[in-house]
Amino acid sequence: MKCLRPAAQFFSSLVYCYLCHMKVRIVLSMLVSVLSTWAGFAQVDTSGIYGERKDSLNAAVYTGKRAGNYLSKSKDLRVEVISSEGLLKMACCNVAESFENSASVTVGYSDAVTGARQIRLLGLSGVYTQMLDESRPVMRGLSAPFGLTYMPGQWLESIQIAKGAASVVSGVESMTGQINFEHRKPTDEKPFFLSLTGMSDTRVSGDVASSLQLNDRLSTVILGHVDKNFKSMDMNGDGFMDDPMIQQFNLANRWFYYNPHFQLRLGVNAVSDRRNGGQPGYDRGTYAPGTPWGSDIGNRLLGAYLKVGIPLRDDQRESIALVADYTWQDMDASFGSASYLARQHSGFLNLIWRNKVSERHDFTVGAHGRFDRYDETLSRTVAAGTNAYDRRTDLTDIALFGEYTLRLEDRFSVIAGVSADWFGPDDGFRISPRATLKYQPWKALVLRFNGGRGIRAALPLTDNIGVFSTGKLWTGIYDRHLLEDAWTLGGNATVYLPIGADPENAYLSFDFFRTQFGQQLIVDYEHLVNGIDFYASDGAPAYTNTFQADFAVEPFERFTVNVTARYADAKVELAGQGLVERPMTPRFKGVLNLQYKTNLNKWIFDFTAALNGSARAYSFMNLDGGRTPVYPTLYAQVTRRFKGIDVYIGGENLTGFRQKSVILGVPESPSFDASAVWGPLMGLRVNAGIRITVWKTY
Asked: Would you say the pTM of this structure is higher than 0.85?
């Protein structure tokens, strides 16, 4: 090992040059990752870092046993946490497959062609949920349809799901809640991690992570991911691939520098994604009516961020922080003879000052600016007419915000915040107040309430990418970025129960939230015959009421039970119909998750059963009773752990249930529609994989 120390120092010097020599980024990352595996960096003393882990600008680190999914007792908001253990319950190629154990979040396909995954939180589309990467807004704009598939599950330490109107510090785009992703840290004691997964549908994915402590102040983590399937599947025999042919590469590099007077975080990431769906043999260059119809979508994404934290007092009670973020994305998509070319430049700058006056009083004020530029070219001709435009759109959000926190010991807290945002000359100023209240009258009971206003700019086509997989003519404001406006109010009561082997984590929880829109972009499939109408709600009723109950217990040691049930009452006023149930929105979902671990966690058995409720179907789907059926889904996984190696095998959709009649009509006809997806597209899938972890030695 000692003979490798000069080599380690040499390659460490090369890593420093990364910031100045972007062209050698990929090569250096690979070299450093390989070197870390050999040497383990055993001679580097990082005890100073691990004595008090400074993993974020405002971090708290907890150790001890945690369930895979649990409700955080300490958070002011109602926050569900999917821990690192929970992320291992599924063969998670990406985070879209990490929510199957949660009834709070429902994940489905936006259509039967593109492979785009969409979530639902509080009964509404995921575009109304703010996605955060360690408190930085991500998956916005062009990346919204595929962003969940660009976040590998094995890159993450945890996922936090917060319902309702959250803090104004990260902006006011959150309406139904926030989902925050915590990545593996540069200070992790894992110089090498490798995960490989194969599925029965020929899909293969791999992840690599390498955390390197270069000295007692500087550390970095290198993250890589590849995802590819080698053969198309058509289990229902409709002539369309159940999943598109995908080839995806992801690479990220994150850095962390710390001293008592200064913290610096920076990182870069890149994504290359190619997906071909629809009928096998589709060729965008030679396509003509009568030849195979499909989609060909290419996405390239580059991102970079910078976080700087400076304490202004020795006791760390006062500090300033600067967060800067830039994203570039290029989308080149075709659907049959239609083409959609789009490019996005997005910049975000957030300046925050925090002053913790005392244990009771805490103030945060700041300003942020966001700029989005979209260049879009659409060319689409269907039997009923043509949709086309070529334009550049600039969207601006400049805000001043403030937040005050009052804490009375551990029993009572109030967070009151407000943000004043200027959205440009057309939309002007908007004031967004938000408030959170937590009351714990005694140790076993926690009561929470929160509410506030959310505002976001709609991207009609990418927010609803399934409209490309139809033969319908679009009408209305499909080419406008309407400013959507909603209020969300709700509360939660959690009772901790003195039962089971782990009373601290046994609970029964109830919550209710209501989201009501003042302005919403309506995408109406039913107003026109063989048409899709885009229009503004303009104050017409559009709301969702969501009820949920959660129960968790460990009946005996190493056996955990989680049961969740959710009911959604979603209504919207549609042209010509009045106030009706929001289409394609399931009324309820129930989830049962069981996990058993043998002594010393050598064997782990996971089982998840979900019951998915019915939804009002579009009228043109001609389903019996006008509703989709209730259906079950089952998942199971068995893991065998060795020293530093996990081997697992599992199954998805064990019932084999599939949606019938996914493709309506024939391509290029006005009745063609491949976007009315409500259930699984593929039957039973078996997966197997291995995870290898090399721990740091001292």
From this structure: yes
